[in-house]
Design brief:
The complex is a heterodimer of chains A (about 525) and B (about 120).
Chain A lengths: L1 H7 L3 H30 L3 H24 L4 H8 L2 H22 L4 H28 L3 H59 L3 H144 L4 H136 L7 H19 L3 H5 L4 H5 L2
Chain B lengths: L2 E5 L3 H13 L3 E5 L2 H10 L4 E5 L7 H11 L5 E5 L4 H14 L3 E4 L4 H10 L3
Parallel strand pairs in B: 1-2, 1-3, 3-4, 4-5
Helix pairs in contact in B: 2-3, 3-4
Classes of the chains: A mainly alpha (about 525), B alpha/beta (about 120).
Chain lengths: ~525, ~120
């Protein structure tokens, strides 16, 4: 159909003008060069030149006319065919045109819809995963993020569902309506075929040519109506496929955004977990050290008291040693006295003198022993004193080392804590910003999508008007078929009725703000050219 | 040629970057934390911002968020050191998600700096 329309729009006026110009140029050329051609043609040059010019002009005219010729196949072919063949052929054309309509209306929308559905599913899956991820974390900031995302997802899922079901609806309706035409045309074909068989006289030839003329006219307008409807359907298809594309683009963007956020939050929660483990370990170690530190003073105290006990034992022993020394001193004196008494006793006291001497020796020995014990005790005390000093220092050094390590650990812990806080702060702020940016974009685009769904309503109305005109045409054709069957000769009205129908439809469409009619000045002159 | 703002709490790094970029003929302004930088931007938005993330008084992430709210096409390059490599990575990822043109992990080489400048359109 489109090739026909481009050829039909080829205007004859410029063609005429062009060929006239060529002729003029040739004449001018001939007069200018006529003197040169004198010698060659001997006087008949004018005739020769003119004939050449005429041949060229006619030739170009013929060629241009051939190009601008309307492929009004029906009328040319009609003249070549026998009577019954003529009519059958006409009806074949009608059915073919209708079938073309049907074929061209099998919308490529179906593929787009499948894409849209697949992407919608993917988006819903992705946002579900994101929800799961966010649900795992009990941090308040992430709860807030999750809560703000959920309603958006629900709104968008609803919008997508509505759109998909609306376009499915329109598709089925359109196909159904156009399918309804087929049986009526088949009917018409059989009726006409029967009529043709019945009429075999020359009288019927006249009637038949009348019928053929009328049918021609009807078919022409039928074709025009079809073309109008087709244009409308094209507009509908374009608009719905544009809406589908923008839906797909929207969902792709949403997909990307949610996948990005999912990855980011997933990474962040893993890192936070590892930080928490490190902090836990540090804390445990610090607690252990703390216990140890608490125990140390106790231990030291215990050590000190045992040393003090030893000291007091030594002191007691010292007392004992003093007593021993006292005893041995007194024993010595006693021995001296005994010796003196023994001397006074003379020979009788010799035995006693030996005993006295032995006792003296004993006293001296015990004194020595006592002194040795004293020295030993003194040494022991010195040792304890010195040892005490060193032992204390050791403990203190140990304590100080532990304390230094703890300070380090605590500082490290503080840093990790600070990291964690910074972490959560950054996480919250980034996710919030990205979400609020997407929210704005999403709500803008959701508004667009809802707008285009509203547009479906307008489309539906347009299609209903198309259905109306198509059913009116069906009625006309049915009437025509009935009239033929009754061999009624008054069939002039039909062409006129079809013409009226087309005019009404186009006017009606322009009242409904049809974008098609707004671009062209008026559709009527278009078919008046033929 | 262009007005570049450098934000970092380390003075030595600010000086190094200033010298390098001045050689290419750009005008350089510096700031030591987010507050100061925001004040500078409010009086006159620079053509390029190079900023650190971990800073006192309003960190890099907050600063970047606010700048992008004012004009979402401002070219920004984000740098980060961090006490651990993991923190730096996280901070740079966050910056990318917010919409900076390029990121640099400290310490970086001159080549890496040139690449980042190219990505930001300089």
């Amino acid at each position: 159909m489109s090739t026909q329309s481009t050829i039909n729009e080829f205007k004859p006026m410029p063609v005429m003008f062009g060929s006239g110009l060529i002729m003029l140029i040739l004449l001018v050329g001939i007069t200018v060069f006529s003197t040169d051609l004198d010698t060659i043609f001997n006087g008949s040059q004018v005739f020769v030149c003119f004939s050449i010019a005429i041949v060229i002009t006619l030739g170009s005219q013929w060629w241009l006319i051939q190009k601008s010729k309307l492929p009004h196949k029906l009328s040319t072919q009609e003249r070549h065919y026998a009577n019954d063949e003529k009519v059958r052929f006409i009806l074949n054309e009608i059915t073919k045109q209708v079938e073309n309509n049907l074929i061209s209306n099998q919308s490529p929308q179906i593929d787009l819809k499948l894409d849209a559905i697949a992407l919608a599913q993917n988006f819903l899956d992705c946002s579900e995963n994101l929800m799961k991820e966010l649900r795992r974390s009990s941090d308040l900031s992430l709860v807030h993020v999750r809560d703000s995302l959920k309603p958006l997802v629900i709104v968008l899922a609803d919008a997508i569902e509505k759109y998909v079901s609306a376009s499915k609806n329109i598709d089925t309706q359109m196909q159904q309506r156009l399918l309804d035409i087929r049986p009526i045309l088949k009917n018409l074909e059989t009726e006409l075929a029967q009529v043709v068989q019945l009429q075999n006289t020359s009288e019927s030839d006249e009637l038949l040519s009348q019928i053929v003329e009328q049918v021609n006219g009807i078919v022409e307008h039928h074709g025009l109506i079809d073309r109008e409807c087709d244009k409308q359907l094209q507009v509908v298809l374009n608009d719905t496929s544009e809406a589908s594309f923008s839906m797909i683009a929207l969902m792709k963007t949403l997909n990307e955004t949610t996948v990005n956020i999912e990855n980011y939050v997933g990474d962040a929660s893993r890192q936070v977990q590892s930080m928490e483990t490190t902090i836990d370990d540090s804390v445990q170690y610090i607690v252990k050290i703390g216990h140890l530190i608490q125990e140390i003073p106790g231990q030291i105290k215990a050590d000190i008291s045992s040393i003090q006990e030893a000291g007091s034992v030594i002191d007691n022993l010292n007392h004992l040693v003093d007593s021993i020394k006292e005893i041995s001193f007194q024993t010595d004196i006693l021995a001296v006295n005994a010796a003196i008494q023994a001397a006074h006793a003379g020979d009788a006291g010799l035995g006693f003198k030996i005993v006295a001497d032995e006792v003296r020796k004993l006293a001296v020995n015990s004194n020595k022993a006592a002194e040795m014990i004293e020295t030993g005790l003194e040494t022991a005390r010195h040792t304890i004193q010195n040892g005490l000093k060193f032992k204390f220092l050791d403990e203190i050094m140990k304590e100080m080392n532990e304390a230094a390590r703890i300070v380090d650990l605590v500082k490290h812990l503080e840093e990790s804590n600070e990291d964690m806080r910074q972490y959560y702060k950054t996480l919250f702020s980034v996710v919030n910003t990205v979400m609020s940016n997407s929210q704005r974009e999403i709500s803008d685009q959701v508004a667009d999508v809802l707008g285009s769904i509203q547009y479906q309503d307008i489309l539906r109305q347009r299609i209903e008007r198309m259905q109306d005109i198509i059913s009116k045409r069906q009625t006309l054709l049915e009437q025509f078929a009935n009239q033929l069957q009754a061999s009624n000769r008054c069939i002039d009205n039909f062409e006129f009725a079809m013409k009226e129908l087309l005019r009404d439809y186009i006017e009606n469409e322009s009242h409904h703000g049809n974008s098609l009619n707004v671009n062209e000045e008026s559709s009527l002159p278009q078919f008046e050219l033929f | 040629m262009a007005k570049i703002l450098i934000v970092d709490d380390e003075e030595s790094l600010r000086d190094v970057l200033t010298q390098m970029l001045r050689r290419s003929g750009h005008t350089i302004i510096t700031a030591s934390d987010g507050e100061q930088a925001l004040g500078i931007c409010k009086t006159g938005m620079p053509d390029l911002i190079i900023t650190d993330i971990i800073m006192p008084n309003k960190d890099g992430i907050q600063f970047i968020t606010e700048i992008l709210k004012i004009n979402k096409y401002t070219p920004i390059i984000a740098m980060s050191g961090g006490r651990r490599a993991v923190t730096a990575e996280f901070n740079l990822d966050s910056a990318e998600l917010l919409g900076v043109r390029a990121v640099l992990a400290k310490p970086f080489t001159i080549e890496q700096l040139r690449e980042a400048l190219q990505k930001a359109g300089f």
